[in-house]
Design goal:
With 493 residues, this protein is an alpha/beta fold. It has a domain at 4-259 and 468-483: Alpha-Beta Complex (Amidase signature (AS) enzymes), CATH 3.90.1300.10. The protein has 15 helices and 11 strands. The longest helix has 22 residues, at 377-398. It is globular, with a radius of gyration of 21 Å.
């Protein structure tokens, strides 16, 4: 039997259904891969027993002739932002170390109900705040990719860096991610995998540790467009426990996949040609246009004039919401409690939050508290919300002339860990192409395009109309078929 860890979601699901191999054999293979990859630091906690129990349940159901779910026999990685009943959930922060929920997030429960099993909880930037996976209390995650001629550890992107690293390294066929301002798409681009952020509200936020509530959205990360379509179908759906959940039926995105784009128009936003973008990224963008043209699409120019204001607006709105959401971590009810001798309640708050939060989290809390303060609320937060509305209106107008938008996912390929730590503003610029779609709540996907001259992956981003995940997936499939991206990292871990 060939190495089962080389198979993706669809191949595993179909193989288990056909009896080509058992779900337990799959779980055993991936558990062994996870155990042998400690050098990547992709997992905070491993749960081999969970994966095996889910696999045995699937094998028993198949033996009994029962209908199998969409993810039957597929072991996955779970980003450690999703609450998992009986399994530590930390958001990669010291302040939640040791916290074991007694409930299951809606998204993870849907995946278990669909037959998936859990290989473990994946590392991430602390509270999903970061673009390089270097802010985790549990240490940096390393990309499985290396720059040609260098042994430097490379960034897997963030915040879903554990997810992207695990999928690219074949430690998991797929993983959950969350995307607030690009945290699925940017790491997917850095590691040569696919990742889709659905329309805001498609996937429930209940049981997901909150960063910025009006932006956070869960989505799948896998090695192919087909696998993302399958997993997203299992994750999505209305949840009465989430007031922002969309009360819409979940389409069968997998069944409707179609790479024939005849009659479709693909918009190219002129404002996305930004200074500082690598030439290789621009070249891949040009190639992407040709691939979509070959698929039958018409390429048209569109304008998103408020793009240049999107990133500054995001770094006001997101920290503002974070400062509010993270106020609950005070040492009183759960998580870390630092109580110095002779201290009072206020001292405990200060000591707990000082010890529990990392530098990047503190930075964003301070920014958010500042822009929400009485003297600056209108000057900053209110203005940022106005810009957000303008960004959304730009997309509405652009979609009058096109069906989907093609853009780079990131301005550069991956960079060495530690190379941007002294310059947070440069780090924030990694999300410059991803943030606008997040502010507008639109579905957006990154698909691997090619390797650059240093042997590092480059991704292309597709942005669709609200609720049109199908259009995004179809365009992604057209690129995937023509790019023929089969490169994988050479094992060094």
């Amino acid at each position: 039997m060939s190495d089962l860890t080389q198979l993706g979601v669809k191949d595993i699901r179909d193989g288990v259904r056909a009896g080509d191999f058992t779900a337990r054999e799959v779980a055993d293979s991936f558990n062994a891969a996870v155990a042998g990859a400690a050098a990547l630091n992709a997992f905070i906690v491993t749960t081999p027993d969970h994966a095996l129990a889910a696999a045995d349940k699937v094998d028993a159901a198949r033996a009994a002739g029962s209908e199998l779910g969409a993810m039957a026999g597929v072991p996955i990685g779970m980003k450690d932002l999703f609450a998992t009943d009986g399994v530590q959930t930390t958001a990669a922060s010291h302040i939640l170390e040791g916290f074991i929920p007694r409930y299951e997030s809606t998204v993870s429960q849907k995946l278990w109900d669909a037959g998936a099993g859990m290989l473990g909880k994946l590392n991430l930037d602390q509270f999903a705040m970061g673009s390089s996976n270097e802010t985790s209390y549990f240490g940096n995650v390393a990309s499985p990719w290396k720059k040609a001629g260098s042994n430097a550890a490379m960034s897997p992107g963030g915040s879903s860096g554990g997810s992207s690293s695990a999928v690219a390294a074949r430690l998991a066929p797929a993983a959950t991610g969350t995307d607030t301002g690009g945290s699925i798409r940017q790491p997917a681009a850095f590691t040569g995998i696919c990742g889709i952020k659905p329309t805001y509200g498609r996937c429930s936020r209940w049981g997901v540790v909150a960063f910025a509530s009006s932006l956070d959205q869960a989505g799948p990360m896998a090695r192919s467009v087909e696998d993302c379509a399958i997993m997203l179908g299992a994750m999505a759906g209305f949840d009465p426990k989430d007031s922002t959940s969309l009360q819409l039926p979940v389409p069968d995105w997998e069944a409707a996949l179609n790479a024939d784009l005849r009659g479709k128009k693909v918009g190219i936003p002129r404002e996305y040609r930004m200074d500082g973008t690598d030439q290789a990224i621009l070249d891949s963008w040009e190639q992407g246009k040709e691939w979509l043209r070959d698929a039958g699409a018409e390429i048209v120019d569109v304008s998103l004039p408020h793009t240049k204001y999107a990133l500054p607006a995001y770094y006001i709105v997101a920290p503002a919401e974070a400062s509010s959401n993270l106020a609950r971590y005070d040492g009183v009810r759960y998580g870390l409690r630092d109580l110095p001798d002779g201290s009072g309640l206020q001292d405990m708050y200060a000591a707990t939050r000082a010890a529990g939060f990392g530098d990047e989290v503190k930075r964003r809390i301070l920014i958010g508290t500042y822009v929400l303060s009485a003297g600056f609320y209108d000057a900053y937060y209110t203005q940022a919300q106005k810009v957000r509305a303008l960004v959304a209106r730009d997309f509405e107008r652009a979609f009058q002339d096109c069906d989907v938008i093609l853009a780079p996912t990131t301005p550069t390929a991956s960079f060495p860990l530690g190379s941007m730590n002294e310059d947070p503003l440069t780090m924030y610029l990694n999300d410059v192409f991803a943030v606008p779609a997040s502010l507008a709540g639109l579905p957006a996907m990154s698909v691997p395009a090619m390797l650059n001259e240093h042997g590092l992956p480059l991704g292309l981003q597709l942005v669709g109309k609200p609720f049109d995940e199908q259009g995004v997936l179809n365009a992604g499939l057209a690129i995937q078929q023509r790019a023929g991206f089969v490169a994988k990292p050479e094992k060094w871990w």
